Amino acid sequence: MTLLEAHDIRLVLDGRPVLDGVSLSLRAGEVCGLIGPNGAGKSSLMRILAGLRRPDGGTVTLDGRPLPTPPDGATARRLAYLAQDRDIHWPLTVAAVVALGRLPHRGPFRDNGARDSAAVERALTAADCAHLRDRVATTLSGGERARVLLARVLAGEPDILLADEPAASLDPLHQVQVMALLRRLAHDGRKGGSDGRAVLTVLHDLNAAAAWCDRVVMLHAGRVVADGPPHAVLEPDLLRTIYGVGIARGMVDGQPVFVPKR
Ligand SMILES: Nc1ncnc2c1ncn2[C@@H]1O[C@H](COP(=O)(O)OP(=O)(O)OP(=O)(O)O)[C@@H](O)[C@H]1O
Q1: What's the 56 CA to ligand 1 centre distance in angstroms?
Q2: Most buried of 57, 90, 158, 237, CB within 10 angstroms?
Q3: Which residues form the ABC transporter domain (predicted)?
Q4: Is the distance from CB of 93 to CB of 134 less than 8 angstroms?
């Protein structure tokens, strides 16, 4: 079942085509990786799918209806967006930053109720931030900040998560934890609500894309050039053409590995 769908999206910035006829559908129960070189248009597409930017052409639908842009309350409860930018500008405690993720559920002028507090606790634990709860968020390391901002979107308990490079500044343990978390979020939703849940995540790490994604969409120069299972999209000839560097593919302990060649 398709939850979120972009059809023939076009975006022009500073007179330059950034997205040129992009179509992509996100289905319930899947983790879909969005890959492609720097400047391919990945973040621009994510912002359009999150309802934060209007495209110059094409349509985005959520549950078959036009996506409100900017998102309304019902949309914000269903769909969350984790931006690539990991800055935290407010000198709030980590617990307070994560609690902001409940805003779509409780409104701006009410305190968190028991259900909100429980969701915040679950999110702090899931993103391995519980021990940071009383720290002032602006004093955290880059990786710690990244996990806190992930916890903030998880606290909103979204059905659809759009995550822009969620594991980019994380150490190997936390990379694995975060990718496993995204996979659980999408796959466990299959068993739960009738509509299910889904994750679309921008990744530069091809190993992570192969290990964790059900499907990979490759963007190049504002166009989708491949869309399919990881083994089909992460194909050495295509990777060399798109990235402009040879990338060796092998298997280690039953897991595909990708190594850019010197
Ligand atoms: N506000 C803007 N004004 C003009 N050009 C922009 C603007 N935002 C993005 N661009 C350009 O649009 C193109 C796509 O940018 P985008 O951030 O979507 O790429 P990306 O695939 O996410 O790249 P990266 O992997 O480096 O994060 C780039 O060439 C970028 O310079």
Answers
A1: 15
A2: 158
A3: 4-246
A4: yes
